Amino acid sequence: MPDVPALPQPLRWSTATAAFQIEGARTEDGRGRSVWDAWVDTPGKVVDGATADPAADSYHRWADDVALLAGLGVDRYRFSISWTRVQPDGSGRVNTAGLDYYSRLVDDLLDAGVTPFPTLYHWDLPIPLHEAGGWTERDTVARFTEYTELVAARLGDRVHDWYTVNEPAMTTLQGYAVGELAPGEFLLFDALSTAHHQLLAHGHAMRVLREHGATAVGLPNNHTRVLRLHDTDADAAAAAAYDAIHNRMFADPILTGTYPDLPGIDTRIPVRDGDMEIISTPPDFYGVNFYNPTTVTAPAPDIPIPFEMVPTPGAPVTGFGEQWPIVPAALRDLLVDFATRYENLPPIVISENGASFPEPDVCSSPIDDVDRISYLDGHLRAVAEAMDAGVRIDEYTVWSLLDNFEWADGYTQRFGLTHVDFATGTRTPKSSYDWYRAVIAENRR
């Protein structure tokens, strides 16, 4: 096990989960159906044919999870609130049982000395809203604002730290552009309207949450350091194009109030008067979910987009293979670039960072997950280097507290600091759990 990294300034420490991935209980207590329920119930959509029930069964075992958090010594817990558990149809009637569940979780976290840090939207769009156009339609912004009001009215007396919309980049690019994730649309660049509507929903949600006493609100987006395969002008242009569509398309509107130029791409973004002012309302922090860099090269003449993604030469990989290379320095470089690019950058929160590796479904003793420890250690040292370079970083979050249902990969990928036997719900902390606990104790704020 590597030495515990020492950070140059104090950090808050956190770990994260998402409702659909851990809660289970998909048909209990009035919960409605989301686009992810439809996805997993469609044969062939999940690689191992699994569904998200019972997953880690956290709907019933939340007290076990709070105990794990207390044992780690984290400052905060990032979890998500299921829209369909609170408002089954995405509008109209409220499911009191769902709000009661999250209220109990919040109370137990506070009793354990852990600050609740919920995410309002982690991909679980209610089916009726999807059938009405989902994030391609502006009306979804209004529905999300109403949902935010319901949650804030119930929890805002105790919850003051909030994430709004998780990874709008992945919803747009994977969910609507190329159909790799729910809702499985294939709109290509016509999907960019969904980026605008998610960012607008974030802006409106910030206003609602602050009206209910929130003191820290921001958006967590997936960001990647874009590398070019060859040191050529053509590859530089390809890298700039991918950086614009994956990173700047989502960060620029929040941090500068404008969308970036996308050379060669007809964006057709449905901006109305006043939208950009709402989107660029200064957040209290900017959330960065980081897993890996992306290497690109100039596309072949018959490829209709201005870049081609390729494996990163010489990089080790996680359980996802060559699509998730391990290059910790890429996180440092991304953070430094953000601080250079955005003059008024708020404090950065690393809102997700973690890795999956092959592990058994059942364990009789703690798993010695040295590869995960190495990954996290390298990325924490990259955070330290960025801090030394002058980047203000206030918080670091490990994905994930628990092994979970990993979207289209089902139960084939395990990210957890804690092993979960999905047949029994048994939780067994891994070596990485003990390592992270030691990191937190050594660097206690």
What is the fold's blueprint, element by element?
Layout: E1 12-16, H1 19-22, H2 35-40, H3 58-72, E2 76-80, H4 83-86, H5 96-111, E3 115-121, H6 127-131, H7 139-155, E4 161-165, H8 168-177, H9 192-211, E5 216-218, E6 220-222, E7 226-228, H10 233-256, H11 275-279, E8 286-289, E9 294-297, E10 308-310, E11 317-318, E12 321-325, H12 328-341, E13 348-352, H13 370-388, E14 393-399, E15 418-420, E16 427-429, H14 431-442
Parallel strand pairs: 1-2, 1-14, 2-3, 3-4, 4-5, 6-8, 7-9, 8-13, 13-14
Antiparallel strand pairs: 9-10, 11-12, 15-16
Helix pairs in contact: 3-5, 7-9, 8-9, 12-13
Keywords: Carbohydrate metabolism, Cellulose degradation, Glycosidase, Hydrolase, Polysaccharide degradation
Binding site for substrate: 21, 122, 166, 291, 399, 406-407
Catalytic activity: Hydrolysis of terminal, non-reducing beta-D-glucosyl residues with release of beta-D-glucose
Provide structural commentary.
By secondary structure, the chain is α/β, with parallel strands linked by helices. It has one domain (12-442): TIM Barrel, CATH 3.20.20.80. Helix content is 38%, strand content 15%. The chain has 14 helices and 16 strands. The chain has helices at 19-22, 35-40, 58-72, 83-86, 96-111, 127-131, 139-155, 168-177, 192-211, 233-256, 275-279, 328-341, 370-388, 431-442, and strands at 12-16, 76-80, 115-121, 161-165, 216-218, 220-222, 226-228, 286-289, 294-297, 308-310, 317-318, 321-325, 348-352, 393-399, 418-420, 427-429. It has a 9-stranded parallel sheet. It has a 3-stranded mixed sheet with strand order 7-9-10, covered by helices on one side. A two-stranded antiparallel sheet has the order 11-12. α13 (370-388) links the parallel β13 (348-352) and β14 (393-399). α7 runs parallel beside α9 (192-211). The longest helix is centred in the middle third of the chain and has 24 residues, at 233-256. The mean pLDDT is 96.
